Amino acid sequence: MSVFDEFKWRGLLYDSTDGLEETLAKEKITAYIGFDPTAHSLHLGSLIPIIGLMHLQRFGHTPIPVAGGGTGLIGDPSGRNSERPLITKEELEYNLEGIKEQLSRFLDFNSKTNPAVMVNNADWLTTTPLTDFLRNIGKHFSVNAMLTKESVKMRLNGDGISYTEFSYMLLQSFDYLRLYELYGCTLQMGGSDQWGNITAGIDLIRRVHGAKAHCLVFPLLTTASGVKFGKSTGGGSVWLDAGLTSPYNFYQYFFNTEDADVMHYLKHFTFLPQTEIEALGQGVENHPEKREAQRKLAQEVTRMVHGDNALRKAEEASQVLFGGSVANLSLKDIRDIFAAAPSIEVTPDEIAGEGMSLADLIVKAGLAKSKGEARRTIEGGGINVQNIRETDVKRTITVSDAIEGKAVVLRKGQKEYRLVLVKD
Description:
Layout lengths: L2 H7 L5 E2 L3 H7 L3 E6 L11 H12 L3 E6 L21 H15 L15 E2 L1 H4 L4 H7 L6 H4 L3 H7 L6 H4 L1 H16 L3 E5 L3 H15 L4 E5 L28 H9 L3 H11 L4 H13 L5 H15 L1 H13 L10 H7 L5 E4 L9 E2 H8 L5 H9 L3 E3 L2 E2 L6 E2 L9 E6 L3 E7 L2
Parallel strand pairs: 2-3, 2-5, 3-4, 5-6, 7-13
Antiparallel strand pairs: 1-6, 8-11, 9-10, 9-12, 12-13
């Protein structure tokens, strides 16, 4: 099996140039993908391209992740209906630092046979004189042909496109040419919306060097319900940076995958063999309530992105909603877990000293209508403090009970939670 076959059975192949399948079956090649530094962190939408490079390296090919220090100053118009706001050079440098660190987690830069190579296209895009660029690169591009590219046509039918973004195709093509010249790179990969930009680079290599280069593009993912992949329930991006999206929320994003999507995602986002994925598929059909496929998906992707320790903590946090211990969790973990649960605030004075009676706190939290009802619920074993059952009606809650002195988790019955937060 070649890496091309791997892409096909995993559903990662949207389209490719003629002859690529035969080339990947016979030769070890060098391939690249560009990463746009519009933020300090990559998001889930970047994970498919990253995994594409990982598959290539596993099959013996050489991957080049390109940090867009040059193209990032311009902005890619692909898939956008309006002009992208320009970022400052300082913002760009800050973003590049985060992206380079993240990419280094996924690829082997120390392999003795096919080490990955990290490059920054600012090395040539910001040092080539404008007149040289127009004479040596621009002369190979027909404006008529550029106007037929999908990324340009979309904008011409909408708000229009500036010359700055119109030139992006030339810059990306120049990247491909330079990587061909410097590293013998003959394959560029990316999302299916990049087809026009990539094939323009292929044409430039042919015109300048008379050489053959290739393109392979991945599908742009949406969920079975039509939502763009990588968006949280609130509509925000799911980031690869643990400071922006906690490992717990990252884990939950994949654990909450719909049955209709989980088999596709197991193929796309894990390196599990076909036989194991098929066995998980049988579980989805026969026992969907167990969510074994979703759990395996969440485990594999969280481990790949955040590591074993973060996965362990994410799973511990997930168990809290089913009565698991909160003893090893941080305040941030608690806030993440109970972000959707009702919460109340108490002042430090209210739980200072001898503290507030548990019965009073239950009423304040809305878990009982009266102090008498609260006492009866406690005596009946229906109240948990920090997920530990409490039956002492004289129990008080003090600051020492709060996680990091800031949060107390109350639970009535099996699923009715309240998060008590101590005001700053």
